[in-house]
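Put briefly, the fold is written as integer tokens. The lines below illustrate.
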Amino acid sequence: METKKDYVPSTLSSNVTSTRVTEFIIFGFPSLQKYHLVLFCVFLCLYLFTICGNGIIFFMVIFSKHLNTPMYFFVCNLSFLDMSYSSVTIPKMLAKFLMNLDTISYVACLAQMYIFLSLVATECLLLTVMAYDRYLAICYPLHYPVMMTKRLYITLSAAAWTGGFAAPLVLLILALKLPFCGPNIIHHYYCDHPPLLQLACVDTSLNVTVGSSIAAFLMLISFTLIVISYVKIILAILTINSRAGRKKTFSTCASHFAVVNVFYLPIIFMYVRPKASYSSDVDSLVALLYTVLSPVMNPIIYSLRNKDIKDAIRHKISCKYIRTCFAAV
């Protein structure tokens, strides 16, 4: 772990030596502290784009009848998910950059860790479900409406959310049993599992082993299933006679798989580790890929490039314009 050099936290916990820590200090980006205003502007823009882009998709799917399909139901879930876990981490980071509000209570820190890990696990499962949905739609187009019923896609979505929030419960329970007696500085921009374990006063090998095992089981298996689905999709695409059809379908699948890689590979690097190794600068930058970049890319790749979504947006805008004109008359 890097040592504190030129940074002096705005508020130090009074319980950092012999008593139990009641609050933590979010350090975050140690080598970039002097650029806090620049970082605030950059992350504020990315956050606003994430909320607006995913919010537009979320409401378009809900209020547009012709988007009432399994694919857009999953996309709607993904948009809500991206807005949720961006909102768990980025607002606190913005408050730190702008107002130097760098403290977080013990309870809030563990709650942030659990909710964030749950949402990440849910996205792993949801992306797997979405890959399976695309596999059925492309490989079995004639049977797809019969196979992917409303009951099935709602059940798959509910299973992704339930499994996502159940998976990190063991990590939360084990973390609640750890004593934190100082130091209380988290070298990360939010309360995450690996940097939090670094602050425990006891051996955390059990926590690391359990965390790595759960992450390996969840992420590697789901990523493998996604890869298998896309391999079968590509093989099915190669059998399409129309060159234009092959190009369009392959382009869409390649974009989706690129987003999957941006999300999965950094997470596998962060959480599937045999020991509690942690580098604040490297791991903070890696974490940005799935906490900031992936939610920004998802609305662009999955939906805003999609003709149905764009048509729905134009339809809503035109209807609102017409109603405004009639109201004015």
User: Anything to note?
Assistant: The domain at 23-328 is CATH 1.20.1070.10 (Rhopdopsin 7-helix transmembrane proteins). Confidence is low (pLDDT under 50) at residues 1-18, 325-329. The chain has one domain: 23-328. The CA atoms of residues 188 and 284 lie 6 Å apart.
